[in-house]
Amino acid sequence: MVVVLWLVMSLAAVTWLVTGERSSARAAESATARMLPQADRPPAHDLWLLLQVPEDRITPHSRSVLGQVGATLGEQLDDVRLPIAPPASEIAMWLDEHLFYLLAPTAMEGLAAKLESRAIAAAVAKIRAELASPLFGVLGGDVRRDPLQIHHLLHKTPGELGFIRPRGGQGSDAFQDPQVTVAGDLIAANGQSLLMKLRPSDDLDALEARAQHLVAQTGTDLHARLVGPAIRQREADNASRNNRVGLVATVLAMLTLLLTVTLRAIRPVLCMIILMVCAVGLLLALEPRVGLLDLPLIILLLGFGCEGALHIHRISLRGWPSALILATALLPLWLTPHPLWHDWSLVWVVGLTLMLLAMRWVLPASLVLVGSELRWPQPGFRLRPMVGLAAVVTCGLLIGGAWAVERMPVEPGQRVALVNPELAAAEQHLERWFFDPDRVVWVQSRGETAAEAVAKSFTVAHAMVTHIGPIASRVESPGSLVVPESELTNRLAALKKINLEARLQQLQATIADHGMRPAAFGEFLSGAGHLDQTPSPSAALEGPLGPWIESLMAVNSDDPTAPHVAYTRLHLRPGSPVPEHPETMALHGPPVAAGRVEAGFESRLGLYSLCGLWLGALFVWFGTRQMSVAMAAALAALAAESGLLLMLHLLGVAASPLLIPVLLLVGASGVIAGGRACRSVDLNQPFSAGGFLVTSLCQLAAALTLMFSAQPLWREVGLMAACGSLLATGVGVFVAPGLCKMLRILGRRLQERRS
Amino acid sequence: MSTSHPPRCNGSRPVSGLGRRRWLHLLGAAAGVSMFPAVVGATTRAQRRLQNRVDLWHGYAQRTANLRARYQLTRHTSIMQHPLVATGTLVFIAPEQLVFYDDSEAGSRTEIHGQQMWMTPRSGEPTGAPREPTDAARWLRDRFRRLFAPTTPEDFLADASISIPRGTGMRLTFLPPEGSPVRRELRTLQVRFDPVSGAVIHISFEEARGDRVILVLSDHRQNVDPSTLSEFIAPSEAT
User: Fold this and answer.
1) What share of chain A is helix, strand, coil (3-state, %, to 5)?
2) pTM of the model as a whole
């Protein structure tokens, strides 16, 4: 009956998985993104097309070829393309038309000084003098459009207008800054690549194939490749999807081999394996998201789940403390800031409960059905508590762990290394020649309408400019190029105080006096003379800058009163900290989340570990009602965790959030091993070393499967789990009894002193 | 009655065994062989003309430790009501210092020193922060330096497409490399050498904005006493 019920449940789960595969495909997305809180995840609209000249085809013509292909491609991809920066000609026109309005109130004094009679005379005389230099055309700047160099007041800080380079004055702060094309794409400073922004698509493969087909049609050798967080996610999901069957099959094969050799029977082992598969199937029916970071935990679940079937020494009479310890091993993950670990703190409970139910409830019934039984080799040895060895090993490991954890570099674990050299090369190129998407933080400005959101980003953009310098390299914001209605009145009043019209007339007269033609400066004079054209948010949205502003906007229905969101993006320099910011301008982004992870990571790691050990010790105490056993098991597990940290440090592995679940599992394993060893000594029973080794080897089999997998991330988790499971078993068996005896001696002496 | 006819002779077919097509092939081959020396000659003539100009320049430039010459600059620009004409003194001190010093106080002093460039009004401070160079400014700076410096012919011809303009005179045209961003600012630069001494006597270039600049050099004095150049060098450098 039990077996039938179990089989029906498993069949239902398989049916659910097969029919729900397509609908759950989308849910399987963003496994790596789930390491970040929702607010700090890169916006979905960050998707770029990178066109690269192959290294062996670089010629002096590469830049012009890229420009031509970019222009052609931009027209053909018009339905999905967005400008990364304001197009060069549009922004020049916008700045010329609204130059005086866009000047900050703090620049008004400088503007008045530039419009004084003497300053005008000096500026015009300077132009006249420089005209006599042979280098005027290449060094003199664009005097026709800005004879008084008023643009310098607008570009006091290079980078405050994003990728737009100041005209006529100092260049951008980075010599290697990309150049904005007339369409608003970016060309790398070395002229060997072009970056184009695209709208996100549900079918990235089709979008990439379309772009590559269009590039091929141009008859050039350019390489086209999509880059961005969505592409990383696609790679991660593909890696997970392509490897999940192979990995599960490998771990099951290893477990089958191991258990068959140990139990010397094939039918019970096959029953075990089938039930484990059914348990995992049921788990996947409940939680279908199997991403890059979920898969290693499922593999470890199979390795640790064998525990339930192997009736070796029990901590209590019915053996439930070890099941509870293992099932709640990952509960402390709920305290971490990572949404993915929040999910896993509960998924692990469900998964392990299913495994244990299968092993302890369904397996005996199955064995009756197939006419077999699970015989465990009983011969063993009697453990002798070694107090001295226990004290030395525990102290050594604890000191070593404390020493290591302070020296281990912390890796925030947001950028998962993927096995795709082409994607890695493209991402490196993006970072080297354009910008690093992982170093961009943003502030959201919300509004009921798009214009209101843009108007609100005005304040944010100007506040963010103060961070440009050693902290940030540029600010991208629609608010940098608009002035809200409330501010326009103030600025117009300030301009009227300067008596702009009269000053411009004087400028014209001075130009004519020096033998120059005022008409040559017509662009400047006409722009300055028309103050009725205001750079309001609605004018910007409806004007030529509209498509660019749209690329920095999103509609979010979380807040129906203010669904429109304008992003102000701050490009942080490598290694620079996230700047201080008021609560009203909350910064978000991967660096913000990384900062939170890095700050006090060691302390929080200790907290999670202690929570796990406390839970384990509590269950051991419930099972044995002996505080010394519970304390010894927890202390031995802590020593095993410290040993793992020391070992990882010596192996050069950085501390990362990936370490947390493995550390907790090692702790749980250590508590169980310690509890069993202490109980064996207390009951004076022979300790079954073979059985105990198999338990450890099952965990090791899962770890080894990961260690020899394709993904670097899985290999790292496998290494941690392999080291940890061996340490936990060794320390639990050989150190915990000694610790238990030592604690009892200490307790007795304390009691004697008190009495 | 029988009549004997001479053998028919088809005028379109040659009497010999060679076919028409083969005759055409032979004719083509003969024409090709006869034209080959002309092609080769054309190539070698262009190379020889270029080599003549480079040798002429090199003969003069390799002796230059310093140079002083008078110049007249004419700028045709839409900014001015009439073409701007300025005169001044050009000073070059090997290996890489070049100064254009206007005679008029209303003019300017332009200096190239190594990688840096200054352009200051004569009435203002003679020194100051160097200008931020654009791609075109860098290209023009290197071109000017190579015209006067005792450098190698390879360096003299580097980073440009070279051609010899039609007409008389020992002239050379330098174009920025194809695809280079310099072409967005500079169209072409033409140089004329003195056919006897090899000194640069005429430089003209066209800017993308439409301005045309003509520099006519005269009264060249090579390797003069360095103390006579000090008035054109910025005070801080002269000391």
Assistant:
1) 65, 5, 30
2) 0.74
